[in-house]
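Researcher: Next entry in the queue.
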Amino acid sequence: MNRFALNGKLALITGASRGIGLGIARALAESGADAILAGRDGTELGRAADQLRQVTQHVHVTNYDLSNTEGIAEWFDGICASAGLPEILVNSAGMSRRGAAIDLSFADWDAVMTLNVKAIFELSRSFARRLIRDQREGRVINIASLMTSVARPGTSPYTASKGAVGQLTKALAVEWASQGILVNAVAPGYIATELNSTLIADPKFDNWVKSRCPLGRWGTPDDIAGPVVFLASPAARFITGQVIYVDGGWLAAC
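Model: Structure for this entry, 254 residues:
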């Protein structure tokens, strides 16, 4: 048996319309999983689904804004009714509001914490409830960040939210281990995506990232997708409660 194969598995990936989320969805599909792509921009989501159908025809699309946390449980029930109960959940949707801590509003703070933490909590427990009810095992894989361990000026809500994701991952892993639901996180370093295009275009920042990273480059969505596939696969059946940093050696360097 290929210990990394995901044939017959169904994966729900949030934030799947582009960037890291889309890269993860593609890698899961290439490993044999059927995919449910979730995002709030229907047009971008449709384009992502078209790309993924070059790999597999088993692609479902669901348009939803996870900032509406009160409706997540009902939305997830609708997914299960139309596409089936996923065994794999990848919480990739996220956002940031940049600015000095003394200047940011509560609205900025609340927006980031709602999407990056509260939505992950609510969707993960909606997922776990169904699996536990049906006596099935599953995997939750959260996308954390380099900022789960370190910080930069101007990122206080994002840094706080990703620190929370790291600890929430551990808490849920401990709580659900006896039900066979494994919960882990992948924490990317600086990744070349559309969301970081302005940073990449800034020569000073681009040079800083490359000089600070021991591997000397920005990461790619594919660099993040591989570890996610591993954590979703049978090869990772004894791994739970871990935050795996995929940062090109960033945290290891002085």
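Model: The chain has a mean pLDDT of 96.
Researcher: Noted, moving on.
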